[in-house]
Design goal:
- The complex is a heterodimer of chains A (about 190) and B (about 350).
- Chain A is of the alpha+beta class and about 190 residues long.
- Helices cover about 30% and strands about 15% of the residues of chain A.
- Chain A has six helices and six strands, in the order H-E-H-E-E-H-E-E-E-H-H-H.
- The longest helix of chain A has 25 residues.
- Chain B is built from twelve helices and no strands.
- Classes of the chains: A alpha+beta (about 190), B mainly alpha (about 350).
- At the A-B interface, helix 1 of A face helix 2 of B.
Chain lengths: ~190, ~350
């Protein structure tokens, strides 16, 4: 009999505890964000869609080689100073957002953007072409680029090589693809779309 | 219905209506009005339920449809449900399947007739009003059983069997809890019950004596079980039975069940207000400037809110717990309330 009353007491008191908890939530500000209107603040190193700044890219192919899923397609023609980039595309069907390409890009052209809501109707449209075929090809060599007006010297780029490789600076200038690791810590800051 | 009679008589050309014609006209008007109120309360309470559920869980609920807090969500849902294909399963018992939703809706619509909205404003001023309400709302049980059997679906049959068992059981404490009030009033007429509570909160039956206070909560819990909601939604347990007895229903027929559910929700709340919470009387006498019907409806909506609050807080009980609660707890307690209020009436000299 005592257990009977005990169970009734427990039922009522625990129900009241639960109800007092839920009623407190009515006075709380809802945690929901009204998504298309309000957006969550993204962390600085958020890995959104990979973006490549064609003005900086020199088609060194490091990103394409490093990519574990081979989702970056780079095509170029010609040799030496005459080498021209004809295609730069990223297949987001394959991309795993591992950030290997951005961490190893020596010009800082390829970055993780903060875009994340690209929905498409067809998976073929997830292959993003970064070059407009109507604009023709892009020279790969830096000297040729400067001559043809393709090279826009980024302001953030300049202080980078100077403090780090003081002695090796001329060597680095002569052969950019050799020292891919040097630029990595400042990459994120220097380039954002 | 003197108000309505006078109103119709005041229309030019209708002044010399015969008694029978007047009776039929008023019945038709009140039936239409009750149906509109039912449909409106289904619309408003679906929206309110989703908002209350949202805010109780620190979210918003519908926000997009219509400009302000998704107010048009229920309207959009209703329009969508009306446009759905009407499917009758091939092996269903056709007659039962078709007739069941109508019976469920009828059960709650009939009960609305005896709700006293304002002094003198009640569709059917019956001497057996309260008894009538409990009697006709049992019709829904037959409807639910027919729906479950007619669907030829095992989930529906399970749901219907559970629903019938639950509703039959909980009708006993539901009716027993109102007996003390009937003893105090000396009448089953819904108007008389409300009139007996005139004058401030302290004259409401909840606060008349401690047994009535307990009886009110017993009524409220039984009412939740009777409407198959809250922690007692055994017939519809969406995690066990797909949707219970209305699994196979689509479109308009499903809307009927839906309408009946929310109509019952409001009906149970209104009966609680009428029997225990002073009906149309304002809590404090100086608040009498509010129209009686408005006071009545506001109290009903508050009771509905309480019901939703419970629904979105407490987990569902098991079937055996449900039956234990009814037969071993609520029926004894309500019986004690009946006897206790009787003794209290004699001791305090209120015995009529």
């Amino acid at each position: 009999m005592a257990q009977y009353f005990q169970s009734i007491y427990n039922a009522v008191s625990t129900a009241l505890v639960g109800m007092s908890i839920t009623i407190k939530h009515i006075y709380r500000k809802p945690v929901t964000l009204q998504y298309p209107d309000e957006r969550q603040a993204l962390p600085d190193r958020f890995r959104g869609f990979v973006h490549n700044d064609m003005a900086k890219c020199d088609s060194c192919n490091i990103c394409a080689k490093l990519c574990p899923v081979d989702c970056i397609y780079i095509e170029s023609e010609g040799k030496g100073k005459e080498r021209m980039m004809t295609r730069y595309a990223i297949d987001y069907n394959k991309c795993i957002w591992c950030s290997m390409c951005t961490e190893n890009c020596h010009t800082g052209s390829i970055t993780m953007s903060h875009d994340y809501d690209h929905s498409v109707y067809d998976r073929r449209s997830l292959v993003y072409e970064f070059m407009d075929p109507r604009e023709g090809t892009i020279p790969c060599h830096r000297a040729t680029r400067v001559d043809t007006g393709w090279w826009v010297e980024p302001k953030e780029d300049k202080p980078k090589p100077k403090p780090k490789p003081e002695v090796e600076a001329p060597a680095a200038e002569a052969a950019p693809p050799v020292e891919p690791v040097v630029d990595e810590p400042t990459d994120d800051k220097g380039e954002d779309k | 219905m003197q108000v309505l009679t006078d109103l119709i008589r005041s229309i030019p050309g209708l002044g010399d209506m015969s008694e029978l014609a007047m009776h039929i006209t008023i019945s038709a008007i009140m039936a239409t009005l009750m149906f509109i109120v039912m449909a409106l309360c289904a619309l408003i309470f679906t929206w309110m339920e989703r908002k209350v559920a949202g805010f109780l869980q620190s979210r918003y609920g519908p926000m997009r449809t219509g400009r302000w807090h998704g107010w048009a969500q229920a309207v959009a849902d209703m329009l969508k449900i009306l446009g759905k294909e009407d499917i009758i399963p091939r092996d269903a018992d056709r007659a039962m399947f078709v007739f069941a939703p109508i019976l469920v809706l009828l059960g709650s619509l009939l009960a609305w007739a005896a709700i006293p909205w304002a002094p003198g404003f009640v569709a059917a001023d019956l001497d057996l009003g309260l008894f009538y309400i409990f009697a006709v709302s049992s019709l829904a049980i037959i409807g639910i059983l027919m729906a479950g059997w007619g669907s030829n679906n095992k989930w529906a049959l399970y749901g219907a069997a559970r629903g019938a068992a639950q509703m039959v059981s909980y009708e006993i404490p539901l009716a027993l809890a109102t007996i003390p009030v009937v003893m105090y009033t000396g009448s089953l007429n819904t108007q008389d019950i409300v009139i007996a509570q005139q004058g401030g909160m302290l004259n409401w039956f909840v606060l008349r004596d401690p047994f009535l206070f307990v009886a009110f909560w017993m009524y409220f819990i039984a009412g939740i079980a009777e409407t198959n909601r809250g922690p007692f939604d055994m017939p519809e347990t969406e995690s066990e039975l797909v949707a219970g007895y209305h699994t196979e229903y689509t479109g308009m027929r499903f809307a009927f069940f839906f309408l009946a559910e929310y109509a019952n929700l409001f009906l149970i709340a209104l009966i609680a207000v009428m029997v225990f919470l002073g009906g149309w009387w304002a809590p404090i006498p100086f608040m009498d400037f509010l129209p009686p019907a408005l006071t009545f409806i506001i109290k009903g909506v508050l009771m509905v809110f309480l019901n939703m609050w419970i629904r979105w807080t407490l987990p569902r009980v098991r079937v055996d717990q449900l039956m234990h609660l009814c037969w071993k707890v609520m029926i004894p307690v309500t019986l004690i309330c009946v006897v206790g209020s009787g003794i209290w009436m004699m001791v305090s000299g209120q015995a009529g």
